[in-house]
Amino acid sequence: MGLFSATKGMLRRSLARTRGALEGLGGLLRGRTLDAATIKDIESRLVQADVGLPATEAIIDKLQQRLRSGAPEDAHAALQQCLCELLGPASPLATTEQAPMVLLVAGVNGVGKTTSVAKIAHALQGQGRSVLLAAADTFRAGATEQLRIWGERMGIDVIAGAPGADPAAVTWDALDAALARNIDVLVVDTSGRMHNDASLMRELTKVRDVITKRVPDGPHEVLLVLDATQGQNALEQARGFGAAIDVTGLFLAKLDGSARGGVVLSIAHALNLPVKLIGVGERVEDVEPFDGPLFVDGLLADD
Amino acid sequence: MLDGLSQRLGAAFKSLSGQGRITEKNIREAMDDVRRGLIEADVNLKVVDDFCAQVSEDAMGESVLQSLKPGEQMVHIVHQRLAELMGPVESHIPFVDPGPTVVMVCGLQGTGKTTTCGKIAAWCRRNGKSVLVAAADLQRPAAVEQLRITTEGVAANAKGNAKIGFHGEPDRCAAYGEAVGEAITVCMNAVRTAREERYDVVLLDTAGRLHIDDALMGELRGVQRAVNPHSILLVIDAMAGQDAVNAAAAFNSQLEVDGMVLTKLDSDTRGGAALSVKAVTGAPIRFIGTGEKYEDLEAFHPERMAGRILGMGDVVSLVEKAQDEVDEAEAEAMAKKMAEGRFTMDDFLKQIKSLRRMGSMKQLMGMLPGVGSMMKNMDIDEGALDRVENMANSMTAAEREDVSLMNKSRTRRVAKGSGSGQQDVNRLLKQFDMVKKMSQQMAGGGMKGRMQMARQMASGGMGGGMPGFSAKGSTKTAGVKQGFKARKRKRK
């Protein structure tokens, strides 16, 4: 995803504010074995970054094992490595031979789905691909309008339905349009819904099934948008949406605030779901491929 | 989790019996469990540690020493302290006279400010106040449009007849960060309009912003200085994590927040953020948001929230939900019908529907104490209720009125129409018959009937009273389900 790199500096800048302070933990850990006080400090940092207790404890266990067994190593580097391992290797967006590639985007209310959809579309457009948007959020007032405005700004067409229309029907129409116009990528925006709302989750499954019906190997990516400010409930979200639409990766939005988004470690620990992209601002360019080491740096930094 | 916590605390104190003395060490062990629970509920770590230190001190007092079951007593103390910290109850907006009362709504992006504005407008109208809703979010595309549609919905449908107006200046919208300051003008115009047109309340829906964005936080201060709002409400996402304290503290230091609205409590979040933000701002949590519709705004109850954070069930909310769903007069008519044995398939269908409107089975059962944690990983077949509804809907009106009409050929037709098997339809009919008989005994039979019903339920002959409904994965919950059904019926 080379074309993302134009904005690469952005994340570095937004993380830089916490960067210098990383020395705090680094200094504490460097050249040290893990005593009770150090472990407590690591625990408190991870918990305060929303990593959650089960994942935090697993990380500390692993770190201890490592320091006990192998050759003496820097405790700080070891911790960083543990976290990166847990996050797994970089996981770029899927690619397809056959157009259209279909991306389905979902999440609970207010995480920033519509903005994220616009960002994804913008990035893919920047790679020289033709993009079409489906406004399958027919429920929230103004949602279609919001996506349409983004579309206009980027010169991307938006397929929409009437307010209250069946989102699966809108998706079907959008698939028709994408196939007829020989579009490279179709991004489907859905309305926010709570993962514990059974009927709305069924509605989402139907949208997914409609896509599979028209494009047999689609959707090629099913992205769950998470809000970096959220806590452990994000893990439940990943479980709920995963059960309904087989999520393939995460879009971690709102990472430009002071929240660290550590819940993705919690999710990686429990569900092994990769983070694919991150959102770092309100502008349409403010999207980055997920970079594990960079993310971990921000996570461990002092306030 | 209450049960779990209570048990673990019980174990921690068990070793004490016979010793008659609680040591600091025992309390520390017990508090470790409390600490874990609170962290898992997303209460901020610093808040958790302060809280645990305080409770440990309290627990050293006599009440624990004298208690017969120290574990339960500890849970009680923890629960009580949590509720105290989140209280008191101030679920209203103070209105000024003469009006208009100016209310400013602010918060991070995506917390639900616009939706909350619609809800507050509806709440004001129920209280006989006219409201002008002003769109001061000029950043997010179509935010003005969203608020306009929301406001129109409230004006058309919300209870009450006070005037609901909308003030929007879409021409002033610009991309993020480019319309800084414009919101001040919009707010001033809105307040002027409200004064001229004699509205009781003017609600200012501001743009979502990061608390670390100085330019936009400055704009909020500008709005505050320009219109001098009577109330500043901060909207907080109940799913927020550890960082909620930083955001709340920043908004509070810039604006002196008067109250908070906790949104998205219709999710299954434990909502520890409630405790965190109360601790840092000291401002009361005035309302909670429990859904996407404008009527989904409720008073805040600290004890219930404390229970939720601790993972205890919420029976009170469950009962309230049921009460919301059921119209008193209708319930009485239904009871009469039941007593006379005139309960029809239509009535049955109606009941299933109102039950389902209250939430998913999993959600409802999650509100029962102790069941929540057990249910967490259990797969409940919500589809079973779909199938029951489908079958009932495939019957003709006459058949639903009098199920005895059903014969083999009709059964075949219903099975075909609903995409189910004939044996499913037969089972439904049989079970409906049982429910009908039972409800007759229940509603009319007085004590004797009730006892009989209880016996029948205990023998398990009725499958929880819900035809076609079965929980996968565990038979343990059958008792709970029956208990739930029994309570539900008793109410009627």
Notes on the protein architecture:
The complex is a heterodimer of chains A (303) and B (492). With 303 residues, chain A is an alpha/beta fold. Helices cover 50% and strands 14% of the residues of chain A. The longest helix of chain A is centred in the first third of the chain and has 17 residues, at 53-69. Chain A is elongated. Chain B is an alpha/beta fold and 492 residues long. Chain B has helices at residues 2-14, 24-40, 45-59, 62-66, 70-86, 113-126, 143-157, 182-196, 214-227, 244-255, 273-281, 302-309, 315-325, 328-339, 345-357, 361-366, 371-375, 383-393, 397-401, 408-418, 422-444, 446-458, 478-491; strands at residues 101-107, 131-136, 164-167, 201-206, 231-237, 259-263, 285-289, 297-299. In chain B, α2 (24-40) packs antiparallel against α3 and α10 (244-255) packs parallel to α11 (273-281). Chain B starts with a helix and ends with a helix. Mean pLDDT of chain B is 79; it is low at 15-20 and 457-492. At the A-B interface, α3, α7 and α10 of A face α2, α7 and α10 of B.
Strand coverage percent of chain A: 5-15%
- Content of β-strand of chain B: 5-15%
Classify the oligomer. Answer: heterodimer
Helices and strands of chain A, in order, run as HHHHHEHEHEHEHEHEHEEH
Structural class of the secondary elements of chain B? alpha/beta
Radius of gyration of chain A, taken over Cα atoms and rounded to an integer in Å: 20 Å
Strand order, biggest sheet of chain A? 3-2-4-1-5-6-7-8
**What does the largest sheet of chain B look like?**
8 strands, mixed
Record field, number of beta strands of chain A:
8
Quickly give the structural class of chain A. Answer: alpha/beta
Strand order of the largest sheet of chain B: 3-2-4-1-5-6-7-8
Q: What is the helical fraction of chain A, as a range of percent?
A: 40-55%
Largest interface: A-B, 46 and 53 residues
Overall geometric form of chain B? globular
How many separate helices of chain A? 12
- Summarize the biggest pleated sheet of chain A: 8 strands, mixed
Average pLDDT over all residues of chain A: 86
Cα-based radius of gyration of chain B, to the nearest Å:
27 Å
Separation, N- and C-terminal Cα atoms of chain B? 30 Å
Low-pLDDT stretches of chain B: 15-20, 457-492
